[in-house]
Structure formats: C-alpha cells, structure tokens
Design goal:
The structure is a single chain. By secondary structure, this protein is mostly loops. It is built from five helices and 13 strands. The protein has a 13-stranded parallel β-sheet with strand order 1-2-3-4-5-6-7-8-9-10-11-12-13, with no helix packed on it. α5 links the parallel β12 and β13. α1 crosses α2.
C-alpha cells in the first residue's frame, strides 16, 4: 500500500510534486504498490508523463490516465511512444502538422477514441487495424499524400465526419456506401475529374465539399440527397447545372463560385431553405426570376459576372444582402442605384 503522503504527491496537480512522487516510487521499490493502486504499469506511466511534459501537452489538471483530450499539434513528431495506449479514456487526439509518414500504431489501441486529427502530415495509407477504433466518428486526414482512398476506412461503421481535402485522390471506391452514417465529407483540393457518384448512396450526408477539383458535370441524381445542407462546388470547370440541383429541400448553403457558368436552372427558386448562395466569378449575364422565391436567402454573391441587370423582384428581398462588387458594369450600377439591399463590395 502506498503511503498517504506519497499518494498525495502522485495525485498532485503540480509538476514538481508529481516528479518527486515518481522518483520516490522508483527509489523505494514501490512499483508494484503503485501498479496495484493505479492499475497501470509504473515504468510505462513514468515514460508517458515524461513524453507529455517534454512536449508541453499536459497541464496536470487531470490525472494523465483520465485525460479525455490530448493535443500534440506542431510537435515535429514522426511517431508516438507505445505508452500512449495507457490513455484509455482518450476521446479526442490531435496530431495535426507533424511529420508522420506512417500511421502511428499505438493510436490503434485507443479503443475509446471518438475524434482523430491528422491534418497536414505525410500519410499515404491507413492500416487495416484502424477497424479497432470502432467508436471513431470524426477523422481528419486532409493535406496528406493520399493518391488512393484508404479502403481500410470502410471498416469504420460509426464514422460521421471524414476530411480528405487537399490530397491527390482521383476517384472514390463504390464501396464507400458502407459508411451509411457519414454526414460530412470534405474532398476539396483533390484531382477529381468526375463527380464521385458513389457518394449518392449515402442518404444522411449533410455537408459535401468538392471545391477545387476538375469537375465539369453534376449528375441529375444529385436530388437523391434529401438531407444535404451545405454543398461546395467552387473552383471547378462547371459550365451548366442540372435542374435537379433545385430539388434539395434542406440545402442552406451553396457555393458555385469560380466556375464557367453562363446560366442557372430555374429550379433554384425551389430551394426554399437556402440562406447563402455564392455565384461570384462566373460568366452569368442574368439570373433566374424564380430565385426571388428563396425567402430565407440572406447572402447572395454575384460579383465578377458580366451582369447588366438583376430580376426586378430581387429588389423586394429586403433581408438579403446582394454583393455585386466594387466594379460592376455601368449598366448594372445604374439599374440598382436605388435598391436598399445592394452592397458594392465582395464580402
């Protein structure tokens, strides 16, 4: 049994007291008593605390074995010690902006992990063992070096948020439909040349980021997403849009900026829940009159288009700010000169 005074040192929220307590355990040969009391191997515990102290990742407010969140962002790490597995209660682990070229194997033993962030590393594959993280619902792998979608992720049935932006993906596997609970997926900044139709089999999808790819076509089947709230298709090569885009009843935000659009489907007026629409940096000469029916629209960006007028009914969208930019055509500037909802700026 540990002496109460020694136990007080070990339970202290002070770095010096804890270090002294661990040193006394080692010098007095009390490792077994420590392990019986705390339920963790002494040597591994000591090495773990040293690692966390070295990287300034622990504030001592919570006993290390009860940590729920841990951030090791920007620590120039290439691997993690095996002792990380002692953090059995960890729910969130942030490993962003490090030097990982291989997935840290010790993470696979954190069976209670819910959120894992590995943004901005050098990963190109994920081991099959990730299926052990069956409680994982958020995984951030953006800004890595994935040429292929890591199919090991398909064994994570509870995954709800997946971030794979700014990699080098060219396609997605059709088997992605196994992720039936997926609600958010970011694929911006990849090398997709065709719309990833496999995603249409995910009925709970609420957010889809496909900006900064090489897409030139959107399929009619997009209307299958009856839960979609945010859709980004910015910075692609779209020249036209399907009428079915207007049949997304829950859509709140739509980003179509920086494409090659010359016209819009009349069906956009059916997006009754739309709150933000970005049409900037296209080749639009007019907008559909039907869009005046979007009563919830609060922000409409149309700058950097060769517009010479707007539907007169837009003047009545009093709660909608319409951004036409600092240098609209002279014709458009004159046309809207007495409108109260026009802003001569871009944001």
């Amino acid at each position: 049994m540990l002496d109460p005074n020694l136990q007080a040192l070990l339970d202290s929220k002070d770095e010096a007291n804890l270090s002294l307590g661990l040193a006394l355990v080692a010098s007095q040969g009390l490792q077994m008593a420590f392990e019986q009391h705390y339920g963790v191997p002494f040597q591994e515990f000591s090495q773990l605390t040293d690692f966390l102290k070295q990287h300034n990742a622990w504030d001592y407010a919570t006993p290390v074995q009860y940590l729920v969140k841990l951030s090791l962002t920007q620590k120039n790490l290439r691997d993690l010690p095996a002792e990380i597995a002692l953090l059995a209660n960890l729910h969130q682990l942030r490993l962003d902006a490090n030097q990982f070229s291989h997935f840290p194997e010790s993470v696979l033993r954190l069976s209670n992990l819910r959120e894992l962030f590995l943004f901005d590393n050098h990963l190109s594959e994920i081991p099959e063992g990730i299926q052990a993280l069956e409680k994982l619902h958020l995984l951030s792998l953006s800004k890595n070096k994935f040429f292929l979608f890591p199919e090991s992720l398909l064994a994570l049935p509870n995954l709800r948020e997946l971030y794979l932006a700014h990699n080098r993906l060219t396609t997605l596997p059709i088997e992605i439909d196994r992720l039936q609970d997926l609600q958010m997926i970011s694929l911006a900044g990849n090398h997709l040349t065709q719309f990833p139709a496999a995603l249409l089999a995910l009925p709970r999808l609420q957010y889809l980021g496909l900006g900064s790819n090489w897409l030139d076509n959107i399929p009619d089947a997009i209307a299958q997403w009856q839960a979609l709230e945010e859709l980004s298709l910015a910075n692609n090569r779209l020249t036209q849009l399907p009428e079915s885009l207007g049949y997304l009843p829950t859509l709140k935000e739509l980003d179509l900026s920086n494409n090659l659009l010359t016209r819009l489907p009349e069906s956009l007026g059916s997006l009754v829940n739309l709150q933000r629409l970005d049409l900037s940096h296209n080749q639009l000469t007019h907008l559909p009159e039907s869009m005046a029916a979007c009563d919830d629209l609060a922000y409409l960006y149309v700058h950097h288009n060769p517009l010479e007028s707007l539907p007169l009914s837009f003047k009545n969208l009093e709660t909608c700010a319409i951004f036409i930019g600092e240098n609209p055509t002279d014709t458009l500037r004159h046309y809207v000169k007495d409108w109260n909802n026009i802003l001569f700026k871009t944001h």
